Amino acid sequence: MRSLDPALAEVASGLAALADWRGTPSGAVRLTTLHYGARTVLASRLPAFLLKHPDVSVEVIADDRPVDIVAEGFDAGIRLGEAIDSDMVAVRLEPDVRAVIVGTPDYFDRHGKPGTPRDLEAHLCINYRLVGGGGLRPWTFLRNGREITVRAKGQLIVNDGLLAAAAVRAGAGLGGLMEHEVAEEVAQGRLVKVLDDWCPSFPGCHLYYPNRQITPALKALIETLRWKPE
Questions:
Q1: Coil, helix or strand at residue 17
Q2: 102-125 b/e (C-beta count within 10 Å ≥ 16 → b)
Q3: Angle at the Cα of 11 (from 15 to 74), degrees rounded to 5?
Q4: Boundaries of each LysR substrate-binding domain copy (predicted)?
Q5: Residue from 8, 50, 60, 51 nearest 30 by CA
Q6: pLDDT value, residue 11
Q7: 2-96+204-225 belongs to which homologous superfamily?
Q8: CATH 3.40.190.10 placement within the chain
Q9: Of 55, 89, 128, 145, whose CB count within 10 A is highest?
Q10: How far is CA 100 from CA 76, 160, 165, in A?
Q11: Distance between CA atoms of 61 and 228, rounded to whole angstroms?
């Protein structure tokens, strides 16, 4: 039966091309994405795509580890811009973002505030395990061209951003959270930023895929997800 696979794939490709010619993309799209990308970019834009294109099915696998999209059978991936290989075609999905170090007022009442990145070594920090890489994500800071990397310690190590954020919001430690996701809590005083001058911005989520012809379904999805500055 394997000998039929190339022929079946060619038929499927031809049907998809015909659908595109008719203005109705169809078929399946398989995506790998960061959990962050799933809850921000996809959660807000993917439902509208599905309603507009009923003949397209989408499979989304959220996984923060590095993924070889070709070897693992994905049509495209979503990662932060700095993590995408240069030989991939990349489409920006959001503007530059920034991770900020935050804690609750109660936490700082008990432990004080760090004045420099090195001070984090004396604090309870929520660490993130790099699944696939094996180690903990380093706490990296940059100011006036000077970079500092800190190996912070704490009670909790996670590989899930929502769990890390929950621990920070409960006052169990300090964490690096996306600035736009905590902006309201900071404005209301429920969370407090520290080391703000040491937290630079970096490229936000991009969709990426191999430099080859893409299906009409993926093309339509890209146009829906693409960041359109106002």
A1: helix
A2: bbbeebbeeeeebeebeebeebbb
A3: 85
A4: 23-226
A5: 60
A6: 54
A7: Periplasmic binding protein-like II (3.40.190.10)
A8: 2-96+204-225
A9: 128
A10: 29, 17, 12
A11: 25
The rounded distance, in Å, linking the Cα atoms of 224 and 220 is 6
Residue with token string 């070594």? 121
pLDDT tens by residue, 131-190: 766 688 889 999 999 999 999 999 999 988 999 999 999 999 999 999 999 999 999 999
The structure tokens 């503007």 sit at 95
CA distance linking residue 107 with residue 204, whole number of Å? 29
Nearest to 33 by CA among 66, 5, 56: 66
Burial of residue 14 (number of CB atoms within 10 Å: 0-12, 13-18, 19+): exposed
Q: In the chain, where does the domain assigned CATH 3.40.190.290 lie? A: 97-202
CATH topology of domain 97-202: D-Maltodextrin-Binding Protein; domain 2 (3.40.190)
Tell me which residues of the chain have a pLDDT lower than 50: 1-6, 8-9, 19, 21
